[in-house]
């Protein structure tokens, strides 16, 4: 198949290696010429050191060239860029199935990625792929498992055929809402987990946080009309477990800085040089929870710690309070 990956970040590039391994013809697009120039010159991503990209890859900054006459389009841009990219796609889009791996909720509209795409592109052939997998692990071809959610059989089957192999497992789901909720909120919970680690607390306390959070996430999924059991999927518990326990997680590492009492300058520097999706998502989740009248006090507390200067140790008090 002819497949384009929109976004030349670590994860989009890593997924491109899976697609190429499965004998697909892969084009990588970025809006940034310096990114494409680097990939073309070095056949290696600066974000995936040591992973050589096949000479067969094509690279472009031309969106029309990237998305026309393709069998699948993979959207792997940062969540905040999905709106602008899909808006630009309108002029050239010809109905190709889409797979979105961007996770999060738009700040102003509280729309999930699936709905952002639908806002601009007249198609139901959209699938969401989400699960516990760091880019470097995907690129190194270690066994990983992800949830593939959608309500359009053609989109699901196209994505499955493009990606699935003996180390890249996909489990199909019809619950787009639950899959997107899990993919978005796990980044926020990972920040809280990092805060606990930065405060010097062990894995036992972090496990407590993860377990408590699963209940809250399940209630939000149900409140939004999704299937609560999705919280136990690759996209749910699997991704939350990985993101909330590993220093490879940018969200966890950001939270750890806060828990350790890093200066505002250090925190600002980290945000400047690192994409912390949980920060982008936090305000959106809080607004969404308020709109749907679903109780998720952990979200309010994380927001107060990060944006209102509340003592990070209040997270411990929150966890040990009596039911």
Automatic annotation (TrEMBL):
GO terms for molecular function: glycerol-3-phosphate dehydrogenase [NAD(P)+] activity; NAD binding. It holds the Pfam family NAD_Gly3P_dh_C. SUPFAM superfamilies: 6-phosphogluconate dehydrogenase C-terminal domain-like (SSF48179), NAD(P)-binding Rossmann-fold domains (SSF51735). Residues 175-316 form the Glycerol-3-phosphate dehydrogenase NAD-dependent C-terminal domain. NAD(+) binds at residues 7-12, 135, 250. Keywords: Cytoplasm, Lipid biosynthesis, Lipid metabolism, NAD, NADP, Nucleotide-binding, Oxidoreductase, Phospholipid biosynthesis, Phospholipid metabolism. Its EC number is 1.1.1.94. Substrate binds at residues 103, 250-251. One of its GO terms (biological process) is glycerol-3-phosphate biosynthetic process. It is an enzyme of class 1 (oxidoreductase). It comes from the Bacteria. Sn-glycerol 3-phosphate binds at residues 103, 131, 133, 186, 239, 249-251. Residues 2-155 form the Glycerol-3-phosphate dehydrogenase NAD-dependent N-terminal domain. GO terms for cellular component: cytosol. Pathway: Membrane lipid metabolism; glycerophospholipid metabolism. It is found in: Cytoplasm. It catalyses: sn-glycerol 3-phosphate + NAD(+) = dihydroxyacetone phosphate + NADH + H(+); sn-glycerol 3-phosphate + NADP(+) = dihydroxyacetone phosphate + NADPH + H(+). NADPH binds at residues 11, 103, 135, 250, 277. Gene3D superfamilies: N-(1-d-carboxylethyl)-l-norvaline Dehydrogenase, domain 2, NAD(P)-binding Rossmann-like Domain. The active site is at 186 (proton acceptor). Belongs to the NAD-dependent glycerol-3-phosphate dehydrogenase family. Catalyzes the reduction of the glycolytic intermediate dihydroxyacetone phosphate (DHAP) to sn-glycerol 3-phosphate (G3P), the key precursor for phospholipid synthesis. This is Glycerol-3-phosphate dehydrogenase [NAD(P)+]. It comes from Candidatus Coprosoma intestinipullorum. The lineage of its organism: Bacteria, Bacillati, Bacillota, Bacillota incertae sedis, Candidatus Coprosoma.
């Amino acid at each position: 198949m002819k497949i384009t990956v929109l976004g030349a970040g670590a994860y989009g590039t890593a997924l491109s290696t899976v697609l190429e391994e499965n004998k697909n013809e892969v084009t990588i697009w970025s809006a940034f010429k310096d990114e494409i120039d680097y990939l073309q010159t070095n056949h290696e991503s600066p974000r995936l050191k040591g992973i050589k990209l096949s000479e067969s890859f094509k690279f472009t900054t031309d969106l029309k060239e990237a998305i026309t006459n393709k069998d699948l389009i993979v959207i792997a841009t940062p969540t905040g860029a999905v709106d602008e990219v899909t808006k630009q796609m309108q002029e050239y889009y010809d109905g190709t199935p889409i797979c979105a791996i961007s996770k999060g909720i738009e700040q102003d509209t509280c729309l999930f990625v699936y709905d952002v795409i639908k806002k601009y592109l007249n198609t139901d052939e959209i699938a969401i792929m989400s699960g516990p997998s760091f880019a470097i692990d995907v690129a190194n071809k270690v066994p990983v498992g992800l949830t593939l959610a959608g309500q359009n059989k053609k989109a699901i089957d196209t994505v499955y055929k493009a990606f699935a192999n003996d180390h890249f497992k996909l489990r199909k789901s019809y619950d787009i809402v639950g899959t997107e909720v899990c993919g978005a909120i796990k980044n926020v919970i990972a920040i809280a987990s990092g805060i606990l680690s930065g405060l010097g607390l062990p894995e036992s306390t972090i496990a407590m946080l993860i377990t408590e959070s699963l209940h809250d996430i399940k209630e939000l999924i149900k409140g939004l009309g999704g299937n609560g059991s999705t919280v136990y999927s690759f996209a749910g518990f699997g991704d939350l477990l990985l993101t909330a326990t590993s220093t490879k997680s940018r969200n966890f590492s950001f939270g750890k800085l806060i828990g350790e009492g890093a200066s505002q300058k250090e925190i600002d520097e980290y945000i400047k040089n690192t994409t912390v999706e949980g920060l982008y998502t936090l305000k959106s989740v809080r607004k969404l929870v308020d709109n749907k009248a679903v109780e998720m006090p952990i979200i309010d507390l994380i927001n107060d710690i990060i944006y209102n200067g509340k003592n990070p140790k209040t997270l411990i008090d929150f966890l040990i309070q009596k039911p």
